[in-house]
Design goal:
InterPro entries: PspA_VIPP1 (IPR007157). The chain is mostly helical. The protein has six helices and no strands.
Length: 221
């Protein structure tokens, strides 16, 4: 019934030590521990309910026995008033039997009540510790998830700066430089292919442009 406390002690004392073992997932292990604790609490709740029911049954029987004691007492008095001593004697004898039964039942009820009170106290303690462990579990799960995220990020960052990545980047840089060199060479070749007449034609265009500008100036345009 109280194996819960053994598990609780194990979780609290070892904390992440066992759960961070390579073969164990801390998040899954924490969830499993909480399921075990919840199951233990349900078992104790059932035991408490049974004990309370037993306590109530004993109390009811003790009350019934006491009621019979009072009933036989009144009947004995009635028999004496009626002058029937034999009937009164038998009523008092039965009264004594019920008194013994009532005494025994009351003693049993008192023990049952103490046991029920103790079990309820233990159950309250277990539920309190369960809530504390639930908060601790949430904190540990958050830490575990954070650690996983950091590990993943570190691995990603390390892969970005490795030799393969650098060599690949350098190859792309060389490709761009090669494209730029090819573009410059193409421009140079295009310029060198111009004929002497092409250059004089461009020169003539420039003179016409100058003359047009001068004319506009004279005309106030």
């Amino acid at each position: 019934m109280f194996k819960f406390f053994g598990r609780m002690k194990t979780v609290v004392s070892s904390e992440l030590n066992a759960m961070l073992d390579k073969a164990e997932d801390p998040v899954k292990m924490l969830d499993q521990f909480m399921r075990d604790m919840a199951e233990d609490i349900r078992e104790v709740e059932a035991a408490v309910a049974k004990q309370i029911a037993n306590e109530k049954m004993l109390k009811r029987k003790a009350n019934d026995a006491q009621a019979m004691v009072e009933k036989r007492q009144k009947q004995a008095e009635q028999a004496i008033e009626a002058g029937n001593d034999d009937l009164a004697r038998r009523a008092l004898e039965d009264k004594k039997d019920h008194e013994a039964t009532a005494t025994t039942l009351n003693e049993s009820w008192e023990r049952a009540e103490q046991d029920a009170t103790s079990l309820r106290s233990k159950l309250d303690e277990m539920k309190k510790e369960y809530q504390e462990m639930k908060l601790k579990k949430d904190s540990l799960k958050a830490r575990a998830e954070s650690a996983k995220t950091r590990t993943k990020m570190n691995r990603t960052m390390s892969s970005i700066g490795n030799d393969d990545s650098k060599r690949g980047f350098e190859r792309m840089e060389e490709k761009v430089m090669q494209f730029e060199a090819e573009a410059e060479t193409s421009e140079d070749m295009s310029q060198s292919s111009r004929t002497l007449d092409d250059e004089f034609e461009d020169l003539g265009k420039n003179e016409v442009d100058d003359e047009l500008a001068e004319l506009k100036k004279k005309m106030g345009k």
